[in-house]
From TrEMBL:
Subunit (UniProt): Homodimer.
GO BP terms: galactose catabolic process via UDP-galactose, Leloir pathway
Biological pathway: Carbohydrate metabolism; galactose metabolism
Role summary: Catalyzes the transfer of a phosphate from ATP to alpha-D-galactose and participates in the first committed step in the catabolism of galactose.
Top-tier EC class: transferase
Catalytic activity as recorded in UniProt: alpha-D-galactose + ATP = alpha-D-galactose 1-phosphate + ADP + H(+)
The entry's keywords: ATP-binding, Carbohydrate metabolism, Galactose metabolism, Kinase, Nucleotide-binding, Phosphoprotein, Transferase
Record protein name field: Galactokinase
Amino acid sequence: MAARTPGVCELLAEARCLYGEVFGGGAPQVAACAPGRVNLIGEHTDYNQGLVLPMALPLVTVVVGSQNPGMDVTVVTARKDADKPHRVDFSLPSNGASLPPGSPQWANYVKGVIQHYRGRPLQGFKAVIASSVPLGGGLSSSASLEVAFYTFLQQLIPDDGDQVSKAVACQQAEHTHAGVPCGIMDQFVSVLGQEGHALLIDCRSLEATPVPLADPNLVILITNSNVKHSLAGSEYPLRRRQCEEAASILQRDSLRDATMDQLREAKGRMDEVIYKRARHVIEEIQRTVQAVDALRKGAYKEFGKLMVESHNSLRDLYQVSCRELDQLVSAVLEVDGVFGSRMTGGGFGGCTVTLLQAHAVDRAILHIQEHYSGTATFYITTPSEGARALALS
Ligand code: ADP
Ligand code: MG
């Protein structure tokens, strides 16, 4: 059945307990949390300045900690599945020098956030991280860690308080310190997500519009394939380059500015693969517009149909799906009460997202278990709140 995931209170208790163990019994002064996300539709469109429709998850990263007198920093993660060691010690550079990435890899997300933090001067601190977001599962544990950490720092040293700059700083952290050239979606929804709403993000204007999604008869089921093919690391930057190439042939700043008519007209001037990539992006942006309309009307069947079209396009045109994700989607679409399903996130493994009637969820999970060749993990989710400070009473 669905995975039992600890809530914010439980994670906070875990982090406080570990803080006491590691730092000799003291209590943390401040705490913050930020969610992972699932993208409902609009995949591989964010770095093309397109539209995306993610929602924040009830799966979160919590950070607790306190200021240190000097410039020394200690950070500990409670996650046993993060690369070792689980504790890192370093000093904040003085005189505006940069804080270089290093080892362990997980600490680079933290160092990147420190580097790009928009409040100064930073002072040393000690912190503990606890999280319920699966690591590397495509639900953006990385953005939830960055945004939770940024929100934690805001409790210690105030920044300029601008939400968009906060998301951008966290994205920068991932670029410069984790070496992942991600789009803005994950950090944005982790900062600005709202309970009971999906978030339409225009990745060009950085405008975010909440779209109500709080129907008690509806469930958003996330299925983790629990596979991650190594292709993901190299194919993502390749897709970005292919999109840039298509935009350049079309003489546009980005594929956001291109239409299908223009693409068809330019077909003879581009490689077939580049054409397919561009077609996915242009049509996926259109699908996202249609999906928002469908959601506003409560037209879930229509929304589900668009999800399936999105999956098929990611599989056939963008070529970022894999056997396991295709299996999960095909299996769940055979169940009565399922509106639609698709792979979500970068691809080559990770999760699928399925929109279905609440009464169908147990049957859907059983059916997937019977038909999936691997072992899946399930999360029954609702659109949740974005990053926030937590009270330590
Ligand atoms: P995703 O964002 O889809 O979960 P990524 O590969 O982008 O996958 O990010 C996962 C990485 O983020 C982990 O391998 C780890 O380095 C880091 N990370 C995320 N959350 C934590 C955490 N709670 N503790 C330690 N590292 C974390
Ligand atoms: Mg990530």
